Amino acid sequence: MYLFTDVKADEASNVLSPMDAYWYSNLPNTSMPEIIRNLIHPGQEEKFVWEKYLVVWSQERLSTDVLSIFFQPKDIYPGAKIKKAISLDRTVIGNAFIPRTEAEAIPFSSKNLSQILNHYSINPGSKEAKQIEESLSDCESPVSKGAKKFCATSLESMIDNVISELGTRNLRVMSTIQLVNRGAKREKIFYKVASPVKELPQEKLVLCHPFPSPQAVFYCHTTPTFKGYAIPLEGDNGEKVNALAICHYDTKDFNHVFFEMLNVKPDTKPICHFLMEDHLVWAPHS
Question: What b/e string do you get for 256-272 counting C-beta neighbours within 10 Å, with b at 16 or more?
Answer without folding.
Answer: eebbebbeeeeeeeebb
